[in-house]
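My current task is to audit a protein record that another person submitted. I have pasted the whole thing underneath without changing anything:
***
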Amino acid sequence: MKRGWITWEETELPREAFETRLDGLRQHLVERSLPAVAIYTDVWRANRVRHFSNFMPYWNRALLVVPCEGPPTLLCSLSPRVYPWIRSVTILEDIRPSPNLAQQLFAMAQERGWKRLGVLDLERLPADLHEQVVGRAADAPIEIEGVSFRVAPDRWELEMYRQAARMARAGLEEHLAGAIGLADHELTSRLERTLRRAGAEDLVILVSNGARVPAPARGETLGPDFSVALALEYRGHWVKIARSASARDPFPTRIHVETLSGPYPYEFSGRLEAPAILALRFESRTGSLRLFHGDSYFSGEQGLELL
């Protein structure tokens, strides 16, 4: 199931957080003399729009339009029947049905009198939408400019990531030790039940019996050297945690690094930028035996900090 029940707890993530984030983005627009910026979102590329508005789509795609002055607008390909739900879990009030996102974006620009428009990560737009936005600009006429804006985890976001990490670790600690001898499907079902009830909105559970990288359960009996890798989403904030049940003392022979706070939930990062949320997975090999362990970290001025 892609995302469970999404709610918004304002005592946990207050409106102040979004107002502060939007103020920083608007200042960036002012410095570049841009009247507004459009930010793309879909089920997989949800981090940016979630950061600024708390909107997380179950499916389909949308554009968040943030002007220098006034509240943001969501151009949404979803049916209007879900707009009351969107308003209940986001800061958004102005939601416009937009089966054709580019067409609605230019209509809004014409309505507001914008001659220039920024698009966050323009070159990362889906190919069809990129072609529509760039291709229609000359006919509008409007100047489209790609915008790069570093979205750094703030104190509110850090606490959400920490809560997700605590949840994942607690679930693994509860079920890992007693899982030797179980079918891998039984372990994944127990983890699914525990973590969903704890508040996980989305969950990916991969298992390794010591001979391969973690993968979906396939009916194997778990031996004493099995490993589990979790990817868990809590209110739009993803973490990745991996643990091995092995009693061996592993020595890492390979490290895999992913950025969790980029535009996508999981991105390979060839360089460690700070500040950012990172997932590190360590593989230990002894002969043919492969063990896996990993966690999620905040990469800041003081280096890596376990979430």
About this structure: Residues 247 and 272 are 31 Å apart (CA to CA). The longest strand covers residues 289-300.
